[in-house]
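A quick aside before the break. I want you to see a complete sequence-to-structure record at least once, exactly as it would be stored in a machine-readable document. Don't worry about memorizing anything.
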Amino acid sequence: MNLLFIGDIVGEPGRAIVAQAVRGLIVEERLDLVIANAENAAGGSGLTPELYRDITAAGVDAITLGDHLYRRKQIYKILEAKENIVRPVNLPCEAIGRRWAVVKARNGVAVGVCCALGQLFMKPVDTPWRAMDDALAHMPSDVKVRLVDFHAEATSEMQIMGRYLDGRVSAVVGTHTHVATADEQVLPGGTAFQCDVGMTGPHESIIGRRIDRVLQTTLTGLPSPFDVATENVRLNGAIIDVDPDSGRAVSIRRLSVDEERAAQLAKDYPAP
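That is the input. The structure line, written in tokens, reads:
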């Protein structure tokens, strides 16, 4: 079975290319499930109920989040009520949201989804290793296909998580840096891994923000709004082929869809 994991959706440009491209990708790539990190979908930081509905209506089956998940208070009710959106497992027990989710793929296979925050160069959080152990232990044992989004800053820590979970989950894919890495591989235990699958949003930017604003603040120290950029929009992610019986990954490959291809996908496979 084929799973698509879409990297950080940034602002309106990221949402727009998801809406254009995902339905066509489902057909062309024979995708059984689409998962996306949407923690930056609302103006570059956070998620709202309206945008949650827009993203899922575009064909995304499950949503993971990261360190900006609570930036928009409106999302609290969605986190409490919906079964296809998860918050990081290593937030405090009292945190709002589900620690893991099980969603049914188009081929009928149940897929477990969870995410965790890294600790290096990030705000203080509990250890992701033991929190991930606990979440996986509580996930139904008959759910063989399991995907983990590790939202972290350091590639070394991302690699540690991949090795730590190798053989226990189908895939560990990274988000947060907004820069795709070229290290996609299937680890010895059968876990697909990539340090960071990249950003879905404007690439004529500095990690999604307007170049002029970021440069001005960096060079002068004067604050300025880091507005989301608009040019060279791409959908970045990874397609993972998994054996549904064993949960072991067969392959992983990077995916990058530019605006031209997204427009063609929208034309070939219009929304109903």
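Two observations worth writing down. The helical segments are 11-28, 49-57, 76-81, 128-138, 155-165, 211-220, 259-268. The two ends are 25 Å apart (CA to CA). We'll return to this after the break.
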